Amino acid sequence: MIEISNLNKVYPNGYEALKDINLKIEEGAIVSLLGPSGCGKSTMLNIIAGLLDPSKGDIKFGGESIVNKHPKDRDVGMVFQNYALYPHMTVLENIIFPLTVGKNKMDKNKAKKVAEKYMDLTYISELADKKPKALSGGQQQRVAITRALVQNPKILLLDEPLSNLDARLRIKIREEIRNIVKTVGVTTIFVTHDQEEALSISDYIALMNKGLIQQFDIPQNLYLQPANLFVAKFIGTPIINTYNLIYKNKKFVTDSLEIDLNKLYKDNFKKDLIEGETYTFAIRPEHFILSDSSIKTLIKSIEMIGRYMIIHADIANVSSRIVVDSKLDLKVSDYINLDIDYKSIYIFDKNGERIY
Ligand code: ADP
């Protein structure tokens, strides 16, 4: 178990990059730190690795505080974006090297045996005699991960490890990474700004914004049960549609859209409504229904994705995205009528807190 409590980081220039981070990560889990650029992901990773000191708070591995330990004594394996392989060494030498230095160093023969065992596991045995520059990006990635794993770390930290790979390879390698770390059973923290990557690789995701965790949950819940408006907007493609409506006389209204309170499911409300307040309705593009119903709009453009297509149209004067079956015979300038799947929508109050 890794426990991070009240972690805070203020940089020397006074910038508070982490405000108050609390996180419990169970043994063997893969956790993604996800969030937009600048939200504090790397700061957090570097503090766990010991490359940065926190301003406040504590980190425990298996009940033992590690914040005052030297990075070398933390049993942390780290793989950076650029892999940082030694260019003059072969793959085998790269992987043996960390085993032959430091406090737990072993003799060359034993190190070779350990290295070969892990290289077998990560399917890179046949690359043993190659130099890094002769490898593809995906192969370098596997070598870097293997070099981190041979040291039998308590925790493996991966900093945007797929960002240098092309789109198809990213999908393949992220499956491989998941298989490898699950086989070894090492607790893994994976930093990414790519929601799809986080959703596919993780057991849990910590979605961060402005130095705070917005939601720590299983991938499915981040999509289906967003805790707040930030999460709803960050997770899901195409991006969720949002509309600001005022609550008056049991109706939510704007100039061009009116939603009757009795269309909504009473049991879904987590809070009482306040008369005259503005609420944000968030409707995923897949939660509009083509029907003969009340909302009529003109198709501005159509994006063909494959399994589905995205219709761009204005709803309540907001440029909106609507996902429909790609087999439908629709074209630009057609009018469509829409209804809303009221069971699946979310409503947020003016602070972005979810109330429905
Ligand atoms: P992320 O990895 O999520 O992109 P970082 O952890 O790198 O975010 O940075 C978080 C915030 O802290 C950013 O606003 C960044 O500009 C700021 N920051 C990072 N390093 C420093 C530093 N050495 N001094 C001051 N501010 C920093």
Give a quick summary of the entry.
This protein is of the alpha+beta class. It has helices spanning 41-49, 91-96, 108-121, 137-149, 167-184, 195-201, 219-224, 229-234, and strands at residues 2-10, 16-25, 30-34, 56-61, 64-65, 76-79, 155-159, 187-192, 204-209, 212-217, 241-248, 251-253, 258-260, 278-283, 288-298, 301-304, 308-315, 318-325, 335-340, 346-348. 22% of the residues lie in helices and 33% in strands.
Topology:
Blueprint: E1 2-10, E2 16-25, E3 30-34, H1 41-49, E4 56-61, E5 64-65, E6 76-79, H2 91-96, H3 108-121, H4 137-149, E7 155-159, H5 167-184, E8 187-192, H6 195-201, E9 204-209, E10 212-217, H7 219-224, H8 229-234, E11 241-248, E12 251-253, E13 258-260, E14 278-283, E15 288-298, E16 301-304, E17 308-315, E18 318-325, E19 335-340, E20 346-348
Parallel strand pairs: 3-8, 3-9, 6-7, 7-8
Antiparallel strand pairs: 1-2, 1-4, 4-5, 9-10, 11-12, 11-14, 12-13, 14-20, 15-19, 16-17, 17-18
The chain binds adenosine-5'-diphosphate.
The site of adenosine-5'-diphosphate has 12 residues, from helix 1.
